[in-house]
User: Fold Phosphate transporter PHO1 homolog 1 from Brassica carinata.
Amino acid sequence: MVQFTKQFEGQLVPEWKYAFVDYSQLKKDLKKIHLLTNGVEEEHTETSLIKTIKSSLGKLSLLGNKDRERSRAIKVHRKLASSVSNSDVYETELLETIADDTDAAKEFLMCLDTQLNKVNQFYKTKEKEFLEIGECLKKQMEILIEVKDAFNQKQANDGESTQESKEDDSLSCTISSEEDSIKSRTEEIQLQEYCLEDLDNNGEQALKSPRSEESIKINNEDSKLRRFSGRVFSCQGRNLKIKIPLTNPSRKFSAISYFIKEDLINQSSSKKRGPDGVNKLRISKKTLNHAEKMIKGALTELYKGLNYLKAYRNLNMLAFMNILKKFDKVTGKQILPIYLKVVESSYFNSSDKVINLSDEVEEWFITHFAGENRRTAMKYLKPHHRKESHSVTFFIGLFTGCFVALLAGYIIVAHLTGMYRTHSENTFYMETAYPVLRRVVYMFGLLFLHLFLYGCNIFMWRKARINYSFIFELGSKNELKFRDVFLICTASMSVIAGVMFIHLLLLAKGYSFGQVQVIPGLLLLVFFLIMICPLNIFYKSSRYRLISVTRNIVFSPLYKVVMLDFFMADQLCSQVTMLRNLEYIACYYITGSYATQDYGYCMRVKYYRDLAYAVSFLPYYWRAMQCARRWFDEGERSHLVNLGKYVSAMLAAGTKVAYEKERSIGWLCLVVVMSSIATVYQLYWDFVKDWGLLQHNSNNPWLRNQLMLRQKSIYYFSMVLNIVLRLAWLQTVLHSSFEHVNYRVTGLFLAALEVIRRGHWNFYRLENEHLNNAGKFRAVKTVPLPFREVDEED
Assistant:
């Protein structure tokens, strides 16, 4: 049977961990009472007949006497709600001695009261928060239904036969404000981008506002471009404003073009103004679809939060029951019936507002978004995670065996044919065919090493109860388990080992180098086609999510930056060697060098050589642009400081490039200075900002107050290891090499060390992000809402 402690810790909401009953602390206090009780029993062991008779009479006593004895054990006082906390406070008075020392029992009951008050306060706060969101969503639903009804009525009146209605379905509503200029509307479009980001930053403060509609407003002190005049329209007797967050350039450009088109239509219809001198605002069907999608997402997040709160109530109730049973068993007193009545009547267990709101959300979703189909609605509200199959584990073992066998076969064939010998007839293989294959293998090796370490990260995050899927905003469809990641790595490396074996075997059989050199290019083409394959195979949702994230990184200044985007951009900063190999292979096949076996062409031509150096700067440039965009959106100076870190990395990389071209003492000194500055900069940011360590006032010396790992020594070791791996650039200056080891192998080894450092960095980065979410009790996403009702004064 699974212990309740493990069951309790396994089912609690990770972000609300510190709001749950501190079951481990209660068990520690109970253990003290247990030790004291055992000590008293050993000192005062009584076996007299009188004691036996008294105990027998006690068992035969009436039930009424029992109740009176129980009532004398403790008495729970319930104080009136204070004006500050607005919640009842419970205090327990101990009326009988336990183990001739009541201090331990009083300490336990005091801790129990503290936990009950904490649970009540948190539950009431979250309940109020979700009720406000539910009330706001109810109004949003009413507005959406009214606008959709007006839209459908307009379509029914106009008829579906006209070509114009087919091309541009829209709804005309009265504009309450005067005609705005295109410039002011463009400012409004820019401002709408800050809406979602401000909500993400404010977190709970936005949710605790008196009315949740106000959370959509942009803070006048913290946002850029403060002034704008919104387009307010009147529909069904309401003055409304629609806000669709413009998080990508395509939506922004389409919105600008829509407003320009709207201006032209309004100017042409200026003669058709009403007697009050107002114009008509045309709301397109696409805008309504965006608004409907936003409300649908908000309902889904609200339903998830309500389920979390119901689980919070049930788990805490079980915790109180179990700890009271243990207390009765240790002390021999009947405390459970008395205190359990208090717990059952407390606010967190007696309030049914969350259950009622959850039922209402289900009803709204079924009626308006699922076509009265409950099963369809539950797929959105309660998505089922894929069950881990044993077949995945089987194929991991199978592909691992295939990889080992193929690699062994490659080594044996290479040894028998003498391909790697310095003085051999087949040295042409090492000069032409092998360098291209080597780059392909190095590129995929680094890539799948990184992916394998990511799978290890997922395993460790799950063990540490870090909700990585919530941090990365991954859905149940595009969330990869660690076994899935290992399966992808082993299958891919088996394919690569097979290609190496076939490549060498064909050359040994006498095929020409021109024919065999096509194989590495075909391997790249196959992986690319699998990546963009539209069929629902090979983890389609995860592949397309990776493509979208890559697009966001490449065009980073134009897209709103979220956690997953800059996390993946950081991974690319550790894959510079892989990107340079990819650039060379692309040059090799695009320029047709594979047909002439001219391996050095892409390294001789100045244009392609400079392009290779530019590729080295790209990851740092993308990451710097992301920092600039986040500063522009949020206005926090820390993003500018972070941008300086990547600029220093680019300067250090630039001095290394210049030193490789002209090996002089001056450039060497500049390399040492710039690389040292960049390394110190990066180490500071790693430890203080990304990992949240080096807090001198922390309870854990030079760490932080909250640690997910129990052994503090692991954090100190990780800091030292990160410093050592950050200093790998010294090899460029010292030119250290191992005896009988090729310099290319040394370069691959250093690149692999950087990938390992990044995988090691990932765990602590996500741990710190998880603790920040837990500190603010963020367990669900904040979704902006499209409609806002505007008063006549506004």
Notes: The beta strands are 74-79, 89-94, 170-175, 233-235, 238-242, 280-284, 787-789. Residues 40-71, 163-168, 174-230, 269-280 have pLDDT under 50 and may be disordered.
